[in-house]
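Researcher: Next entry in the queue.
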Amino acid sequence: IRPLSKGHTLVVPKMEVDRLFDLPEEDFQALWAFTHKVAKAMEASVPCNRVGVAVLGFEVPHAHIHLVPLRTEGDLNFAHPKLQLAPEVMEEIAASIAQEVAEDILH
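Model: Structure for this entry, 107 residues:
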């Protein structure tokens, strides 16, 4: 996985569908509710001004939502070169976001 910025996260539904709008309504709503939790966790974990959202679906035939920490509008440009982060850096960021999500769920 090659992120656009540190903290770039994919939210993927358990049900495998090609297009996001192929999800049953209940699963679609649950996916966006969880996406909200992840975005809030990202804001608490990753330095950014906003969290950008994108749904593309051209490269992988499994619906997913991109959440990208943004400092400027240009940070959400998928044509830009992707970052090459060390696996341990990506794991550290993922753990921080996961911890924030877990704390949100427990409260």
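Model: The first strand starts at residue 9 and ends at 11.
Researcher: Noted, moving on.
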